[in-house]
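just leaving the lab so this will be short. what follows is a protein written twice so to speak, once as letters and once as C-alpha cells for the fold. can you read through it and tell me how you think this chain folds. anything you notice is useful, everything is just below:
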Amino acid sequence: MTSKHRCPSAIKEVDLLEASPFHLAFLISFPVALASATMLPFASISEAEAALGRNLTAAETVWFRYSAGMHDFWLYAHNIVFLLLVYTLAPLPVALVELRRPRAIHRYKLQPKIHVPVADVLRCYRNVVKTFVFAVGPLQLFSFPISKWAGIRTGLPLPSAWEVAAQLGVYAVVEDYFNYWLHRALHCRWGYEHVHRVHHEFTAPVGFAAPYAHWAEVLILGLPSFLGPAIAPCHILTFWLWLVLRHIEAIETHCGYDFPRTPSKYIPFYGGAEYHDNHHYVGGQSHSNFASVFTYCDYIYGTDKVIWHHLFIVYTCTFNMQTSGVLICLLLDNCRDTDITKHSL
C-alpha cells in the first residue's frame, strides 16, 4: 500500500518508518508506542476497490476486513503465534501414532532400536516453548521496524500465486545456503561444546526436537530465514506462509521416520528425514549432512555422505550376527571415508 491511501496519522508513521534506517534505533525502543496506533489504509471496501481499479477478490475482502483496523505491528506479532501453533500441532500425528500404535509405523522408523521416553519429549517441549517465548518472541517484536524498512508489506493487492511460489523458492535457496555455513560453523569444537551440543542430545531425533537447541543457536540459525524476505520483500501473508512451511519442514526432517510418498519426496535435491537423521546419529563427530533443506551445498562442498548406518541397523535387525558381521565387513571395506565408519562402527 502506498501512503496516499492511509489516514494522515498513518502517513506520518509510515514516513518515520521508511524515511531512513537511522530511525530504527528509536523505533525499536518504543514498540508499544507503535502498537497503540491504528492503520486504516482505506476507509471502506469500496474505497479500496476504487484505488485498485477493480473489485476485490474473495481473499482480499477477507484480508481487508481482518487487517484494515489493525496496526502493522500487531500483524507482525502474529509470527510468534504461528511458530507456537505449528510447533505444537505439526509433530502431534506421528507422536500420537507412535504412542498408541507404534507397530503401524515401525517399519518406517530410521533408528528402530531407539525409543525416546515420553518424559524426554515433554521436557523438550517445555524448553522449546520457553525459548520461543523469552528469546524468539522478543526478537520478532523488536525486529518489526527492520521488517518495515526491508519492505514487508501488509496492504492490497494480495500477491498472485506465481509471485508467492517464486518468492518461496528464493527464500528456500537463500536460507539453505546460509544455514549450511552457520550450522557447519557450529560443529567446530567451541561451537559444539558451548552451543550446538544441546540440539544433539537427541541422537535419534523426534519432531518436537526440531527447534530444541541452545537459545543462542535458535537465534543464529533463525537469521537465514529472514535473509530471503529481506532480499526479495514480500507480503506479510507470504512471510507467514514461509515461516510455517520452513518450520514444518524442520519438524519432518527430525521426525525419525522416512515415510514413502510424502509431498517432500517430489522436491528436487530435498534432503529429508533420512538424510538429517544420519547427522544426528553420528552427533558431535559428524562432518557431513549439514544442509537444512536441500543437499546441493553438501554435494558442492564435499560434505554429503551416504547413510550407511541405516543399512547397518536394518541388517542387524533382520539377520543373525554372523550374517551381519559379513555385511559390516563389506560396508567397512567400501565406505572408509564416511563419518559413520570413522567414528561410530
Remarks:
- The CA atoms of residues 88 and 276 lie 21 Å apart.
- The mean pLDDT is 82.
